[in-house]
Specification:
Layout (H helix, E strand, L loop, with lengths): L8 H21 L6 H6 L6 H11 L3 H13 L5 H17 L1 H5 L8 H6 L2 H35 L9 H53 L3 H10 L25 H17 L2 H7 L5 H32 L18 H9 L4 H37 L5 H25 L5 H27 L5 H25 L10 H25 L1
Helix pairs in contact: 1-9, 1-15, 3-9, 3-12, 3-13, 4-13, 4-15, 5-11, 5-13, 8-9, 8-15, 8-16, 8-17, 9-13, 9-15, 9-16, 10-13, 11-17, 11-19, 12-15, 15-16, 17-18, 17-19, 18-19
Length: 512
């Protein structure tokens, strides 16, 4: 994905200093924890604006940082339709799910399912989360190790090292630094580092815009003209040009984007412990609502910046098609990295790469913390730790944190040298399970008559249907019937429908 990096000593010093500062800030920002509650939900006293920035940083991965500019390079600004759906989804979450989380002093997303349906539903949902987050987190960790591996290869000491060996070292370094501040700082440390990380990578994107403006003739004005001549600024795509037959498979249509973005955001920010854990650290329901809705607004602005960089790069490289003989890059994911490596000045390059690591480490830290909290609070404490002292709970929580850091590293190791298609399958698992998770939460929030057995049946049905829809075409090497923006909507609809139908027939049978 990356290229031969002309990495100066100054760039290297900036990157190392950044990593050290992150570890120190995260370790001390969490304060002194006294129990698993303070470790995983920060005693519910984190400012709402810090939670906002943490949410945005957590959902911004390395793949987002390098892929979204490439997406705009190849197409236009249609992806902004999805981000508008993200905002709609967060507004719905704030009024449907957050009041339920505010009741009963819950510590994980899946505690709500325990209160509504019972322990079996909670355990099932928590287990699904653990599996999908482990695989997805491992893939993201592997992607983060790519630029560090290339940097290490540029040094003479590592020049004769094997490719696998360098990747193992890279994964170990990233995991170790992230694990240090997650272990000592808990969720508070993670959140405050996220605030710093977001500032770093957004600052890096803004600096990139200024650099492109300075090296292009007539600056951004000329770039805007060139991009405008090819309809690169198109945002709305109604999607009816190719008829109904291709409506569901076409990329980023207005209805598909709004529905897909809305339901994906409801699932990821309303049912996924990765994000819900942050919302549970707020002082009250009002602060949780402000945090999640504001994050939706910031995400629109952030993606607009990423996409705008893509348009600037399109003009800078004169629209050369990736993979052709004239292109210095093979695919769209390489466009932004190629510019970083070859055109950013010394020092700035180190800052931008620090921003890339910032986007990645914030997601990795969130994965470790959320996996640990769900394991501890959903699966361990209700069954094996009921009589533990707060001190013992904290000790076990930290051991579990180390365990998940190691587990994610091992998953990342597995992807070294594995085919790109396998990585796509792993990343698609979230799309497979999100619909089932969201559908189950909707059953619990809006359908009072649905009981545990029906909820679990609906949940499982949603996952099975999505496995068929998502994985079968990939394994056959065929194009999917539906664009990914429809996945969560379809899975949610199946879960809600089957859950209600099963409960209807179950109730009818009981009345006979």
């Amino acid at each position: 994905m990356f290229f031969l990096i002309t990495f100066s000593l100054l760039d290297f010093i900036i990157l190392v200093l950044y990593l050290v500062i992150v570890a120190l800030i995260g370790s001390f920002a969490g304060g002194k924890q006294k129990s698993s509650t303070s470790y995983f939900v920060g005693d519910k006293n984190v400012p709402w604006w810090a939670i906002t920035f943490s949410i945005v940083a957590t959902e911004t991965s390395t793949l987002t940082f390098i892929s979204i500019p490439g997406l705009a390079y190849l197409s236009n600004l249609n992806f902004l339709q999805v981000t508008m759906g993200y905002l709609i989804g967060r507004i719905i979450i704030s009024f449907i799910f957050l009041p339920a989380y505010a009741k009963g002093n819950l510590q994980t997303a899946y505690s709500m399912l325990d209160n509504r349906f019972g322990a079996q539903t909670k355990n099932f949902a928590s287990s699904v989360f653990l599996v999908t987050q482990t695989i997805g987190g491992g893939v993201r960790l592997f992607a983060t190790a790519i630029p560090l591996a290339v940097i290490l290869k540029s040094f003479h000491y590592f020049s004769n090292s094997s490719n696998i060996g360098i990747y193992i070292i890279s994964i170990f370094i990233i995991t170790s630094i992230t694990l240090v501040y997650t272990f000592f700082g808990g969720i508070k440390g993670v959140i405050w580092v996220d605030v710093l990380q977001m500032g770093i990578y957004i600052g890096g994107v803004i600096i990139t815009i200024f650099v492109i403006n300075s090296i292009m003739p007539n600056g951004i004005a000329n770039i805007i003209r060139l991009a405008g001549d090819t309809n690169k600024f198109e945002i709305i795509n109604l999607g009816f040009d190719n008829g109904i037959k291709h409506f569901f498979s076409d990329s980023y249509t207005l209805i598909g984007s709004l529905l897909g973005g809305c339901f994906l955001s409801m699932a990821s920010h309303g049912t996924d412990q990765l994000i819900v854990q942050r919302l549970l650290t707020a002082k009250n329901l009002k602060d949780s609502r402000k945090a999640i809705i504001t994050s939706g607004i910031i995400v629109i602005i952030q993606f607009a910046l990423f996409l705008f960089v893509g348009l600037l790069l399109f003009a800078f490289y004169k629209g050369v098609i990736p993979g052709t003989e004239a292109a210095p890059f093979a695919k769209h994911d390489e466009i932004f990295p190629h510019f970083i490596v070859n055109y950013l000045p010394v020092g700035v390059k180190g800052l931008i790469l620090a921003g890339l690591f910032a986007a990645a480490m914030s997601t990795l830290a969130g994965s470790i913390s959320s996996l640990s909290s769900s394991t501890m609070l959903d699966l361990y404490k209700p069954y094996a730790g009921q009589n533990n002292s707060p001190k013992k709970d904290l000790y076990i929580s930290r051991l579990i944190t180390i365990g998940w850091g190691i587990a994610l590293s091992l998953i990342a190791f597995l992807f070294i040298g594995i085919l790109h298609s396998v990585v796509e399958i792993a990343l698609g698992i979230a799309s497979i399970t999100y619909g089932g998770l969201l559908g189950t939460f909707i059953l619990g929030s809006l359908f009072d008559k649905v009981k545990q057995k029906a909820a679990i049946t609906g949940f499982a049905s949603g996952i099975i249907v999505m496995v068929l829809i998502v994985l079968i075409p990939i394994l056959k090497g065929e194009s999917p019937l539906f664009h990914w923006v429809w996945f969560t909507f379809i899975g949610t609809s199946i879960t809600v429908l089957i859950g209600n139908l099963y409960q209807y027939f179950l109730t009818k049978a009981e009345l006979k």
